[in-house]
Amino acid sequence: MNKRQDAIQELAADTQIRSFPLEATSNQTERAVQGVREMILRGELQAGERLTELSLVARLQVSRTPIRSALLRLTEEGLLEPASATGFVVRSFSEDEVFDSIEIRGTLEGLAARRAAERGVSPELQAQMRQCLAQIESLLAESSPGGTHLSRYAALNGRFHALIMAAADSAMLDNTLDKILNLPFASPSAFVEVQSHLPGSLEILRQAQAQHWDILDALLSRSSARAEPLMREHARSARKNLELVLADQTARQQMHGASLIRSTPTQGQ
Amino acid sequence: MNKRQDAIQELAADTQIRSFPLEATSNQTERAVQGVREMILRGELQAGERLTELSLVARLQVSRTPIRSALLRLTEEGLLEPASATGFVVRSFSEDEVFDSIEIRGTLEGLAARRAAERGVSPELQAQMRQCLAQIESLLAESSPGGTHLSRYAALNGRFHALIMAAADSAMLDNTLDKILNLPFASPSAFVEVQSHLPGSLEILRQAQAQHWDILDALLSRSSARAEPLMREHARSARKNLELVLADQTARQQMHGASLIRSTPTQGQ
DNA sequence: GCATCATTGAATGTATACAAATTTGCGTTA
DNA sequence: TAACGCAAATTTGTATACATTCAATGATGC
Questions:
Q1: How many Å apart are B62 CA and C2 C1'?
Q2: Do B60 and B169 have their domain in common?
Q3: Is B66 near strand D, with its CB below 7 A from some atom of it?
Q4: Residue A268 lies in a domain
Q5: Domain region containing A61
Q6: How far in angstroms lies nucleotide C6's C1' from the CA of residue A23?
Q7: A71 and A112 in one domain?
Q8: Do the Cβ atoms of A242 and A235 come closer than 8 Å?
Q9: Domain named HTH gntR-type: which ranges (chains A, B) (predicted)?
Q10: What percent helix, strand, coil does chain A show, rounded to 5?
Q11: Which of A121, A123, A153, B203 has its CA 20 to 30 A from that of A74?
Q12: Pick from A91, A106, A128: which residue ends a domain?
């Protein structure tokens, strides 16, 4: 499928994962989508704030039509939600919802790992997986605690996860997972880049990398019964990381899209 | 969450599941969405056919703006896909993709069942589940093979599945599953109504109902380790049903959205 | 005769005017 | 003083004109 292939190419080019650059585009709709998304993730638009098309026209220098399309797309992405009868508000997420999205990701990635183990991984993908993990390995070996290689780790980590999706070879699964990964805090590497301040961050990454090797081993030995639970548990460690980040106010505020997460789980809505 | 509650109410009212009535609406966009969806599911628009906004304006008596919104929404629903750089085409699905979507549904429903078992089912939901299964039971007892109660079975079956989602109490999970259920062949009751011609259809429904009781038992005994695999296996029996329907040309053509499914799995695209 | 380029046509992208609807605020009345 | 209702203003829904881009076809030159 095109989208998955693109993702792998993109990751192979060692670019940052899920970056939303405001690069020049001839497309006004794209400009509007990126603009509004940036404003939300930066926290310029408060969670719960109502968005009017005209105010966005003024802020983004784009007419109402592309703004309208952009709001629909961002609603689809999950960053906005329809307000009462008319208009949109910036969505907020309870901590429970964030945890849920990680568990759903783990479940879907677990299904992908099982499928990959069942149908076997092509030699090309095997090689790419091995190379990817080797790169992470050398990164972890050379980097001192609190080093600045975290963004590279995040990219490689995302690449490994994308390779497993590629091995599962299911466009339906890709599309379903993509919807979850759209949320800024649900991706496999969402918290990596803000962990540098936290104690024991390097150890956490080492544990995750050990799980990577176990998963790869399960895939190569065609052990679907191992691959699926290993992948699920791997996602659960992401949840543990998130709990650490959310507990630390400094790290929490540095997190991408932190303003979308409500402090009190059951409040609001 | 509102959406789930609505679904349960709707099902409780014993209406047909996933019906898309062309009822009068003051909303032109809604009219366009329903119109195009109907045309696709009826097979008036061939899979792979390119849709131009102007031709739809002529057919639906609605201006380009709501047509445009409708095409975006239907793309989101998965019935359309973007054509090269511009425009949309009616999407087609390989049989593998249909099977995949059922497996993904089973996986997500399995997660829901596990969550429901872990957190316990409220007395109200327990009562509704029991009542729902009892209604199916009496339906199966009274109906002769090849009876015409299949649409009522489909509604009750859908209701039971919705109740499990409600018991899981996860908006994120709801949203993710909704995307899958949008596909006309992925819902739990997609094939029920066309099975009447097939031999052994009543026996298939009885087996499914037996699984329902097992699942309910697992939920009530808080056995998450039983609930999840039972739910998954329940979805696999839907896959078996689909294989029967697809193999029978008569039943296949009666299926909702049959024109979207390619006969040869790897062809096209 | 084939290839390349230009011109023409049709489709989508964008902007905006107008209509409908919803919300807000003020005033009046109980 | 509080509540209800009406009116005005703001906001979204819809239609359409205009701009731009893409594709196809034909003509011309090699």
A1: 46
A2: no
A3: yes
A4: no
A5: 13-91
A6: 33
A7: no
A8: no
A9: 26-93
A10: 70, 5, 30
A11: A153
A12: A91
CATH number at A58 reads: 1.10.10.10
DSSP A124-179: HHHHHHHHHHHHHHHHHHHPPTT-S-HHHHHHHHHHHHHHHHHHHT-HHHHHHHHH
Global pTM value: 0.88
Residue position matching structure tokens 């380790």: B225
Residues in A 100-119 with any Cβ partner in B closer than 8 A:
100-101, 103-104, 107-108, 111
> Which of the residues A53, A81, A88, A100 would you substitute to probe the B interface, choosing the one with the greatest number of B C-beta atoms within 10 Å?
A100
Three-state DSSP at A261 gives: strand
In this structure, the answer to whether residues B159 and B237 fall within a common structural domain is yes
Instruction: With a cut of 80, say whether residue B145 has pLDDT above it.
Output: no
Residue A7: pLDDT band with limits 50, 70, 90: very low
What are the tokens at A51?
């968005």
| 8 Å CB contact between B73 and B33 | yes
Q: Which pLDDT score is estimated for B167?
A: 98
Residues A124 and A188 in one domain: yes
The residue of chain B with its CA nearest to that of A232 is B111
Residue with the bigger pLDDT between A267 and A52: it is A52
CATH code at A100? Answer: 1.20.120.530
The fraction of chain A above a pLDDT of 70, given in percent, is 86
Work out the mean pLDDT of chain B and round it to a whole number. 86
How long is chain B?
269
Task: Check CB contact under 8 Å for B176 and A171.
Answer: no
Q: How far apart are CA B53 and CA B46, in angstroms?
A: 16
Closest A-chain CA to B98: A172
Domain count of the fold of chain A: 2
Subunit contact B173:A100, Cβ cutoff 8 A: yes
Residues B151 and B120 in one domain: yes
